[in-house]
From TrEMBL:
This is Signal peptidase complex catalytic subunit SEC11. Coiled coil: none annotated. CDD domains: S26_SPase_I (cd06530). Keywords: Hydrolase, Membrane, Protease, Signal-anchor, Transmembrane, Transmembrane helix. The lineage of its organism: Eukaryota, Viridiplantae, Streptophyta, Embryophyta, Tracheophyta. Gene3D superfamilies: Umud Fragment, subunit A.
Length: 251
């Protein structure tokens, strides 16, 4: 496949070199036309490369967003997947584990593991519900949480003056986990240079994949053309053979 791509590029380079040679060898008026054709050819080639380099990553990002929105609708959670960033839930969940969340209309019970947001904090927290308090006036349920590996409850983590979590603070219940996979996210967050290198490498690999796919399509098109030509030749041979047979029989 690499040979096919190199061949295609070499053909394009030959065409550009031919246009340049023609532009130099012609007269003044024709030289301007030749240089214009050369500029158009170079511009079209650059646009073709940029199209492949920008279209495929855009499709990947769009597909990821669609999948994420679909998961949000299915799970009922604004963040269906979260990464454990601390050891406050050890030994159950360790740093780097990925949690899968689900949020239903069922009331939250003591002992459930929930992921919640705190006013003034950007990063969600995953802890266990240790107390449930039902309001007599509204019937709404407030909860108090605590990390399994912490000594005290989470009231020191809540906003100033807040003693309980309301339902709108809860992002979802933990219904499953995948160990250690979230370390990729942690490393890229704590080491930005690794994130940059990872993005550059991914972009480079996408470019190679686009290049190879383009060569594969060209090779497939070439094979299809050969098959069509062979089929047409075979059909012509069959027609002539039938005509020759009829002439021999009737004569």
């Amino acid at each position: 496949m690499g040979w096919i791509g190199d061949t295609v590029d070499s053909v394009k380079s030959i065409q550009i070199r031919q246009l340049l040679t023609q532009a130099v060898s012609l007269g003044s008026d024709d030289t301007e036309k030749g240089l214009l054709q050369l500029g158009i050819a170079v511009l079209l080639r650059i646009c073709g490369v940029l199209r492949h380099l920008l279209l495929i990553p855009g499709m990947i990002v769009t597909s990821a967003l669609i999948i994420w929105k679909a998961l949000m609708c299915i799970t009922g959670s604004e963040s269906p997947v979260v990464v454990v960033l601390s050891g406050s839930m050890e030994p159950g969940f360790k740093r780097g584990d990925i949690l899968f969340l689900h949020m239903s209309k069922d009331p939250i019970r003591t002992g459930e593991i929930v992921v919640f947001n705190v006013d003034g904090r950007e990063i969600p927290i995953v802890h266990r519900v240790i107390k449930v308090h039902e309001r007599q006036d509204t019937g709404e349920v407030d909860v108090l949480t605590k990390g399994d590996n912490n000594y005290g409850d989470d009231r020191l983590l809540y906003a100033q003056g807040q003693l309980w979590l309301q339902r709108h603070h809860i992002m979802g219940r933990a219904v499953g986990f995948l160990p250690y996979v979230g370390w990729v996210t942690i490393i890229m967050t704590e080491k930005p240079i690794i994130k940059v290198w990872f993005l550059l490498y991914s972009y480079w690999r996408i470019g190679i994949a686009c290049y190879n796919f383009k060569g594969l399509m060209a090779e497939t098109k070439f094979k299809i053309c050969n098959v069509v030509v062979s089929a047409r030749c075979l059909a012509h041979f069959a027609i002539h053979f039938v005509r020759w047979t009829k002439e021999r029989v009737f004569t």
